[in-house]
């Protein structure tokens, strides 16, 4: 499954957040193919629609989808020059699909701030700059290569060079690669092989104190203001409280704890869902009495490819898909009921699966 890397300066609350994530860990037995390493936390993605289906179908087993979080500790100022665990840290970021950037928005005189003061915008920039410097290195290397090709009269190389120089200028100006508005094709040709760090999608976690958990505070507001042009989400939570919430196994007690703090849901659940959509993932469901299950696909996938997530035979032998929308399922209660009123769609190979579809695949073996 896809991975989000948790990054941030030291002492901002990364481990605390990661511990909360790992405590609420998914039943590993149900997901035998995930990597279980100490710095990887596998969590289930909370989804109300799964509860709706479970209520209707009353299956023996319910399986939510999962995503993975990787704790990437060790980034300090100068990492791009090899300071701290610099290069190892940056290599770890290269492997993840998206970045969760944790930012300290709490004051606490007992917790040393590496820069001596709480300043979320400055902190964010320290990390950004390290990643941008590393990317600049990669882009510069590629520019040298492409320039050689241009000298031999390669027309394609000329176009590539233009794009690369744009990336270089942006990175030098302190902008991340993700902010450049090139098409997917242009990006692929020019920087696709570079695995740039700042091209990965990002969301910010504003780690606030308990008393600011519901409303945020001046720090989280400053952060929001600073990233508003990045089109990136800011999730406000208190990591220390989240790790307490995650410890509570009993669902009723869990509910009581949330109510006591005035929370509608755990901040961790908000973070998990935000990360899921950051990865551009959507969910479809299969619903049978044995098992109701959520499946993860990329937005835009067609029915056969989506079926392939369940089993490669489903994709190879795909004939058609029967699709029910959840509101119809709710209204007519059973698959047969939905079918009777003609609300079950029969779709072919070209159908683009929509978020929340309940799918039944027909296939040849
Ligand atoms: P990391 O270095 O980013 O992994 O940070 P840690 O998770 O180890 O946290 C550093 C210190 O900050 C620890 O003493 C935590 O208990 C404390 N801490 C983490 N989150 C919060 C928070 O939301 N509020 C307060 N006051 N302290 C926190």
UniProtKB/TrEMBL annotation:
It holds the Pfam family MMR_HSR1. Its cofactor is Mg(2+). Residues 280-363 form the TGS domain. PROSITE patterns: G_OBG (PS51710), TGS (PS51880). One of its GO terms (cellular component) is cytoplasm. Residues 2-257 form the OBG-type G domain. GO terms for molecular function: ATP binding; ATP hydrolysis activity; GTP binding; metal ion binding; ribosomal large subunit binding. This is Ribosome-binding ATPase YchF. It comes from Persicitalea jodogahamensis.
């Amino acid at each position: 499954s896809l991975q989000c890397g948790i990054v941030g300066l030291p002492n901002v609350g990364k481990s605390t957040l990661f511990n909360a994530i790992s405590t609420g860990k998914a039943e590993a037995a149900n997901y035998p193919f995930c990597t279980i390493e100490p710095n990887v936390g596998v969590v289930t993605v909370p989804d109300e629609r799964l509860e709706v289906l479970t209520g209707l179908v009353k299956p023996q087993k319910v399986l939510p989808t999962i995503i993975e979080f990787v704790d990437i500790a060790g980034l300090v100022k100068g990492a791009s020059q090899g300071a701290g665990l610099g290069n190892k840290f940056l290599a770890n970021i290269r492997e993840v699909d998206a970045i969760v950037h944790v930012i300290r928005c709490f004051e606490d005189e007992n917790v040393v701030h590496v820069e001596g003061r709480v300043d979320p915008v400055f902190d964010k920039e320290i990390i950004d700059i390290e990643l941008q410097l590393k990317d600049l290195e990669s882009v510069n290397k590629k520019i040298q290569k492409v320039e050689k090709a241009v000298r031999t009269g390669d027309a394609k190389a000329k176009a590539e060079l233009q794009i690369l120089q744009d990336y270089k200028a942006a990175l030098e100006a302190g902008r991340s690669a993700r902010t450049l508005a090139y098409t997917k094709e242009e990006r692929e040709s020019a920087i696709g092989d570079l695995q740039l760090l700042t091209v990965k999608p990002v969301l910010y976690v504003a780690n606030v104190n308990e008393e600011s958990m519901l409303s945020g505070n001046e720090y989280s507001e400053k952060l929001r203001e600073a990233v508003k042009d990045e089109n990136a989400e800011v999730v406000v939570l208190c990591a220390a409280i989240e790790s307490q919430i995650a410890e509570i196994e009993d669902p009723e007690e869990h509910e009581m704890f949330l109510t006591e703090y005035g929370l509608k849901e755990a901040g961790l659940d908000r973070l998990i869902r935000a990360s899921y959509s950051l990865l551009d993932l959507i969910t479809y469901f299969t619903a049978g009495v044995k098992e109701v299950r959520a499946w993860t696909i990329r937005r835009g996938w067609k029915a056969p490819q989506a079926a392939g997530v369940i089993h490669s035979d489903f994709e190879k032998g795909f004939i058609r898909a029967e699709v029910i929308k959840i509101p119809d399922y709710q209204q007519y209660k059973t698959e047969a009921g939905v079918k009777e009123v003609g609300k079950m769609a029969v779709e072919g190979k070209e159908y683009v699966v929509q978020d929340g579809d309940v799918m039944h695949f027909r296939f040849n073996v």
